[in-house]
Amino acid sequence: MKKTIYAIASLLSVAGTIQGQTVDFGGDSYNVDNVNKFNEEGRTKSFDLTYPISEIKEITFSSNAIDFNKADKKTSGNEIRWFTFKMISNNGAVLSDFDGKISGDEISVFIPYYEGGSIKASFETKGKVFVNGIQQKSGVSGNVYNGDVEYKVVDNDGNIHTYTVKVYNSGLPIIRIDGPADMASKVWNGEYPLTMTSANGKTLAKTTAGIKPKGGQDSHTKREFNIKCSKKTAFGDMAKNKRWILLSNVDDASMLRAKVGFDLGKELTGMSWTPSSEFVEVVMGDRHLGTYLLCEQIRVSEGRVKEDAVWEITDDIEADDVWFVSDKGTKVRLVDSAEDDASKEMEKAKTAVNKFESALYGGKSFDSYIDENSFVDWIWANEICKNEHLFKKDCYFRITTDGKIAMSPIFSNEEWLGNNGQSYEGYSTINAGWCEKMMQDVDFSSAVCNRFKEIASTESVITSAIEEYKEQISLSAESDAALWHTERSLSSEASSLASWIKKRYSWLSSVSDGICKCAKADRASSNNEIKSFDIKKNSNGNALLEDYSATIANDSVKIFVPYLVDFNLKADFTVANGAKVYCNGEEIQSGKSTVYYLKPQQFKVVASNGDVRTYTVCIYNSGLPVVYLTTQGNKNITDKTTWLDNTQFTVYEADGTVNYDAAPEMAQVKGRGNSTWDATTEKRPYAVKLNKKARVLGMLEHKRWVLMANFYDATFIRNAMSNYIGKRYTNQDWVPSGYNAELVLNGVHKGNYYLCEQAKINDNRVNGEFLIEADIKAGLSNGAIEGPKSHNAFFTKDPELQQNSSDYNRVKEIIGKFESALYSGDYNTLMSMIDLESFVDWYIVKEWSRDVDGNMHTSCYFTIMEDGTIKMGPMWDFDIAWGGNPFGAMGGYNDIEGYYITTNPISQPRGNTCTSWFGEFIKMPAFKQMLKEKVLDINSHLDEILAYIDENTEYLLLSATANKVGSGSGGMFGGGMFGGGGMFGGGGGWGWPGNGQGSSSSATTPESYRKSMSDLKDFVKSRMQWFVREVNKF
């Protein structure tokens, strides 16, 4: 039997120094090099041997005396060649290998989170190594490195070489969390032991805590952590609390911005509380995570927010949040409350916000509803940092005991303060949310500009702090960069940050002077008048396609640019001699200063005598998305068959943000359509094919898209409304999605188009095997399949099938069997071949709209499924439906009463009568019964559809007035030759493009557009009334 024998050498009890090189067990001798393990407890060292206990007679220690006090003599036999602390040797005390730097007689090792415990060094040397007289074994002997440790290396001749080993950390406190670093994100994990020790190993805090990581679970990501201690705990000099945050500063190369932001907040005393923070090293489980900023979380408690609740204005509302929306639409989320039931605080906050906003936006005094000092200091804290998220998130406030809104605390400034090239010029706060309107109040704006003069000295405080913190975290930052494989020069980053802050203060100082000059009640005169105001193409890069002059009236300046997506513009203006113009305190110079016009801007004109006059300057677009389509070399799109390669296709949101950009893959474009393509060369429809599938304006990804010209539609809504009805009130498998948009083609504004999905067989589009179009207008050539009973022309659209191929013949056979059953009244066979509901749904929308092409004339699609079943749809092409046919008087196409989709198409091939399938379906009892049920159901939703038209009247009004081709306020369609003179004879909003050039006789006015939309509503309502009367006869 073998037992472990503990041979103990107590440094306190043994006389003299143990220099033993061997351990003898009854005659058997073991060299220290063969010892398996050294142990240490206090000042007692022990080593373990495994030996048959029955054979032990006695234990003796022998030592060969070495004089460690004699002078060093370096030889090749007492040199340390390398020195390291290996993870494998240190059982969790060292989490990766750390190599020592050997310089002469000094060995230095940087372990950022070393706390002073015993760790084992690995080394290579020819001699024997001693520490405090005890021989060391590489990877086995442990020592404490609280100070310098001398390593004595002795060669075979007794010569000694002394090395001084220094193990040092980053100098920051160390947070250790005994939990896995890859724990799940966004949920509270466990109750893990958590300790905080100082750089010299002193325990500063010890508790257990739940941990909630933010961000993904990827082990390669430096995440942030919320901490919820089991009891109130003080970390460093910060007050006791349960809730804390470890900020990773992962997006800040300097790692200083969050800390600097907090320091600035503390300097501005108008805010009652700003979080305290401290840099720390973080170790979680078996991983060192690097440099973090431990900071106080925003909570209602002693030492933090003193009020009963703290709130955040934010667009980021989650399902489990407690929140409300003010009467003016401000979203407010509860961050923390002193009570579990926050209903009273909710009502108190909602009342305070509503009263304040009512006064603010109602032009009344608001000072009784706010804590002005907190607002002013909060504005400057965020303005100095240039926080661009305000009133979207991280916008915190409290309600004081007397019911006033008090702003603070500030938080999350690591993204700002010049990060990622952010300019030191420009506002982020003064022109945002509530502040924009508040700054129009003379007294408040005066308080804001005067306060900046008082706090200007904070610049030196902050820049000095940056230098201090740079030195404090320099070692840690270097380690962090290596740990996360980032390129970082802390010195350079800190210098850039300090420089940015100085420039930011300088810029704010200059504009605050302007704010002070403008902080007066208006006193208008000819001495502070804007006489002219223009934005010119040559001054504004690619933003404008032509020059625009403003309408100036009643102290307002307005310019409408329907397609505008770049709102950073230079204006040319003239004012009275000696007058100066300011915007948000910054002097604006004609033709030189760039102003951001996404929102209306207040221009203050200050006369030479100091009198102020305020103009509201609005430069605005139609409010629609904008499509820029540019062919290579601006080549004209001249036909419907040739795809033009290398076409730039960019889609912008109305606010100018890019929704989709085809670059670098680019796109292809060609013409499309029938009557519209032939009617004009100025506003034609186009097909777009991307070279890579993509989502556009939120629509599901695909390569194929359509720009419908809305040429014949004075409302620009008929296609969109038809799709709206199809999606919401029918069970069609697929109905195109789309959006009205402004089109700029090769540098020319073409007007209002409908950008929509093209009908294609695809998982995100039409479900089926073959997409077929009935198009007797195209004739029976070019591979058309002739219906044996209808004599219509059917074309395989997707995929396009070769004539007489097996699939082509299969489609032909299915159509033949279908028509035979339909026209013979064999309803049992027919029902086995079709999806009846799809035919009813398609017919309802086509008949209700009285679509001129819907009687199987053209653009009438159906799908053959893999099992041969026929489904009608998708619905398509309604621009001259719904009472808007410009030829309405000739064919009765705009009549309210009477069936149309059941009638025969116009074209008659080969002398045979071409018929509509629906002339036969209307005889079918099952079709009629389902038709009646569905018409009555849709009629119950008629008010919703009429409301949809009303909403879009205002939405599309500006775009309609800017549309130069196709629709106008007069012309031949507007009560002329084809107008019919009646209510639905084309309406009063049409101008015919003479000679095929597409130029309208007069522009659409707001009044004529509203009239067109009103006529559309009347048609929708009256036609539905007819439909209901008819189906009630069944």
Secondary-structure blueprint:
Layout: E1 2-10, E2 20-25, E3 28-31, E4 37-41, E5 44-52, E6 59-63, E7 80-85, E8 98-99, E9 101-103, E10 106-110, E11 118-120, E12 122-125, E13 128-131, E14 134-136, E15 142-144, E16 149-154, E17 160-168, E18 174-177, E19 189-197, E20 203-214, E21 224-233, E22 241-247, H1 257-267, E23 277-284, E24 287-296, E25 309-313, E26 323-325, E27 331-337, H2 343-361, H3 372-385, E28 395-399, E29 405-407, H4 433-438, H5 442-455, H6 458-483, H7 490-518, E30 530-535, E31 548-549, E32 551-553, E33 556-560, E34 568-575, E35 580-583, E36 586-588, E37 594-596, E38 601-606, E39 612-620, E40 626-630, E41 644-652, E42 658-661, E43 667-671, H8 675-679, E44 686-696, E45 699-708, H9 718-729, E46 738-745, E47 748-757, E48 770-774, E49 785-786, E50 793-798, H10 806-824, H11 827-833, H12 836-849, E51 860-864, E52 870-872, H13 888-891, H14 917-921, H15 925-939, H16 942-962, H17 1006-1031
Parallel strand pairs: 10-17, 18-23, 33-39, 40-46
Antiparallel strand pairs: 1-5, 2-3, 2-6, 4-5, 7-8, 7-12, 9-10, 11-15, 13-14, 13-16, 16-17, 18-19, 19-20, 20-21, 21-22, 22-24, 23-24, 25-27, 25-28, 26-27, 28-29, 30-31, 30-34, 32-33, 34-37, 35-36, 35-38, 38-39, 40-41, 41-42, 41-43, 43-44, 44-45, 45-47, 46-47, 48-50, 48-51, 49-50, 51-52
Helix pairs in contact: 1-6, 3-5, 5-7, 6-7, 10-11, 12-15, 15-17, 16-17
